[in-house]
């Protein structure tokens, strides 16, 4: 959850620095990217607050889907040159957070068996 929070902060800073280029490339890109990146950390936080493993796993699944969305939004922003190429490291971080979330979800689901 800490890495997802840090990613959210980094993406917010990125979006603030390059909001004009993002708006020019694709109206709504900034807003959608921020909503999706916030969803990762928020769903992980909410999911870990549940006692029922199935509910926790469900929130993990939503966080994973949000990781997919953030990755694609960042790739699109890079392809459209709305953000500088050095931000490709954020994609690597999204992929790692997604891997970790898959692992956590798998761990949680083994508790239900």
Ranges with pLDDT <50 over ≥5 residues? Answer: none
Number of DSSP-assigned strands: 0
- The radius of gyration is 15 Å
Series of secondary-structure elements, N-terminal to C-terminal:
HHHHH
Distance between the termini: 25 Å
Polypeptide structure, described:
With 113 residues, the protein is mainly alpha-helical. It has five helices and no strands. α1 runs antiparallel to α3, α1 packs antiparallel against α5 and α4 packs antiparallel against α5. The longest helix is centred in the middle third of the chain and has 27 residues. The radius of gyration is 15 Å and the shape is elongated. The two termini are 25 Å apart.
Give me a quick take on this structure:
With 113 residues, the protein is an all-alpha fold. The protein is 82% helix and 0% strand.
Structural topology:
Blueprint: H1 2-17, H2 19-25, H3 29-48, H4 53-79, H5 88-110
List the defining traits of the structure above.
5 helices, mainly alpha, 113 residues
């Amino acid at each position: 959850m800490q890495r997802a929070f840090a990613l959210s902060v980094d993406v917010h800073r990125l979006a603030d620095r390059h909001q004009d280029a993002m708006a020019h490339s694709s109206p709504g890109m900034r807003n959608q990217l921020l909503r999706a990146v916030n969803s990762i950390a928020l769903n992980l936080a909410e999911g870990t607050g549940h006692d029922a493993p199935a509910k926790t796993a469900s929130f993990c699944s939503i966080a994973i889907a949000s990781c997919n969305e953030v990755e694609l939004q960042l790739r699109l922003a890079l392809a459209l040159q709305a953000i500088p190429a050095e931000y490709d490291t954020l994609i690597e971080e999204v992929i790692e957070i997604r891997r970790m979330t898959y692992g956590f979800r798998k761990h949680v689901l083994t508790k239900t068996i």
